[in-house]
């Protein structure tokens, strides 16, 4: 059986099993616009480095990628500023929820890692200080990775989050008070809400992340986006921090670097092999897609391929 047929068969089998099982968890209510999505959506897409693709369920429907975008803004900032970004944000798992304020005071306004809200907000600040129009440059970067000029922010989702984003306002003002934000907090948050609002299908999300499975190089045009060592480090950060205080559990059950978002998406990569994206909006109590984690656990169990 060739690679494509084997993955298609495995994915279909696990998809059906997870689909028939329970769908527990909640849709987050703090971003009103996300409540318009049916909680039973379920889609999966894989993209292998040899160019094979397979998708099932709602894999061609767009959803809000939310925190998954933080990996892309981090990649962009890391490439431009190199290791100097680690003076502004650490690389330790937080062991706390994605929007926690808890460790900031003890850590003097240096967020624990770039994949929690506090860290991603600092990365936004870094990009804003560098570009005249950071929003424009960032979406161009995502379009380049996707090889798709139509990708965009959702103004509705960004506005909806801004209206009630008190927690993120608190984080940003607090970090500013500790001296680790250069720009006006409102401006930083506008960019942060925008990058979280990007909408993608599982199909294009999986494709975008193939560069991290492919040593930093895009599949189209073989364009190097990140040096080898930066790619290695971003994958390490996804492995240790990609699922907030469920990162250890995700490594234990799935064994792949990945990143979740409160829109119900999860993307994971197997270096040298593939990138895979799953979307199912109901979230477990740690804020990660219930069915997404279940599916990926089944997938690495059955394929017996993972980084461990
Ligand atoms: N935009 C969301 C927030 O800032 C992203 C969080 C997430 O996806 N975990 O709260």
From TrEMBL:
Gene3D superfamilies: DD-peptidase/beta-lactamase superfamily. Substrate binds at residues 67, 117, 161, 168, 192, 244, 262. It catalyses: L-glutamine + H2O = L-glutamate + NH4(+). It holds the Pfam family Glutaminase. It is an enzyme of class 3 (hydrolase). InterPro entries: Beta-lactam/transpept-like (IPR012338), Glutaminase (IPR015868). Its EC number is 3.5.1.2. Keywords: Acetylation, Hydrolase. GO terms for molecular function: glutaminase activity. One of its GO terms (biological process) is glutamate biosynthetic process. It comes from the Bacteria. Homotetramer. Belongs to the glutaminase family. This is Glutaminase. It comes from Capnocytophaga granulosa. The lineage of its organism: Bacteria, Pseudomonadati, Bacteroidota, Flavobacteriia, Flavobacteriales.
């Amino acid at each position: 059986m060739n690679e494509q047929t084997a993955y298609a068969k495995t994915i279909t089998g696990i998809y059906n099993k997870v689909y028939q099982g329970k769908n527990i968890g909640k849709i987050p209510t703090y971003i009103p616009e996300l409540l318009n999505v049916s909680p039973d959506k379920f889609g999966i897409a894989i993209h292998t480095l040899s160019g094979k693709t397979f998708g099932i369920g709602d894999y061609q429907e767009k959803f809000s990628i939310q925190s998954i975008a933080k990996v892309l803004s981090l990649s962009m900032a890391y490439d431009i500023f190199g290791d100097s970004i680690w003076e502004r944000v650490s690389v330790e798992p937080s062991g706390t929820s994605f929007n926690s304020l808890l460790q900031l005071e003890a850590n003097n306004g240096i967020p624990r890692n770039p994949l929690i809200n506090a860290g991603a907000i600092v990365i936004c600040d870094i990009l804003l200080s560098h570009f005249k129009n950071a929003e424009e440059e960032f979406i161009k970067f995502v379009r380049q990775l996707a090889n798709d000029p139509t990708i965009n922010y959702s103004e509705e989702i960004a506005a909806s989050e801004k209206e009630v984003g008190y927690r993120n306002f608190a984080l940003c003002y607090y970090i500013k008070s500790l001296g680790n934000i250069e720009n006006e907090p409102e401006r930083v948050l506008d960019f942060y809400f925008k990058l979280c609002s990007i909408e993608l299908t599982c199909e294009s999300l999986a494709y975008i992340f193939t560069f991290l499975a492919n040593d930093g190089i895009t599949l189209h045009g073989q364009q190097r986006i990140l040096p080898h060592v930066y790619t290695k480090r971003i994958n390490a950060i996804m492995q240790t921090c990609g699922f907030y205080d469920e990162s250890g559990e995700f490594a234990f059950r799935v064994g792949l670097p990945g990143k979740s978002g409160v829109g119900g998406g999860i993307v994971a990569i197997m270096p040298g092999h593939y990138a895979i994206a799953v979307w199912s909006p109901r979230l477990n109590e740690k804020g990660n897609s219930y069915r997404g984690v279940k599916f990926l656990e089944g997938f690495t169990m059955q394929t017996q391929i993972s980084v461990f």
